[in-house]
Amino acid sequence: MGLAFPKPKKRSSLKRAKHMRKTTRIAAVRSAVMNRDQRCRLCLERGPLHMHEVIFRSAGRSLEDTYSLMNCLALCDKCHAKVHAREIRLSFEDESIGCNGEIVVTPNESRFAMDRISEALKSSLDRKGWRD
Fold it and tell me: Alpha-carbon distance 111 to 88, whole Å?
């Protein structure tokens, strides 16, 4: 007679459970952010809003820190596109209260500098006849 051990869980069921916890967390935070903000935090436009994380999870943050009311805010389509195109940068005025306080918006100078350099390069190539 041998000892009976529980069968180990399959990896797929563990991944599924982790995914469900993540999507449940994101949905709860998104609902709370939309209730708190109700309009774009940058341009104050009403309409379709997107939840944006000021500090991304890829920066080494945990799921709970990334998807929290302190780190998430509502943005309209245009402002959200500008942030992801790195035309503007968002930061907190007061780190201790995060998105519950004021958001600092700064133009991304390096992005504008790269645009100016690429425009100068294009015009230079045009003058030399190297561009179609």
Answer: 9
Q: Which residues is 89 bridged to in the sheet?
A: 106
Give pLDDT, residue 123. Answer: 66
Distance between CA atoms of 118 and 124, rounded to whole angstroms? 10
27: left (phi over 0), alpha (psi -120 to 50) or beta: alpha
- Quickly list DSSP for 47-101: SSEEEEESS-GGGT--HHHHSSTTTEEEEEHHHHHHHHTTSEEEEESSTTTGGGS
**Encoded tokens for 32:** 């709370």
With 0.90 as the threshold, say if the pTM is over it: no
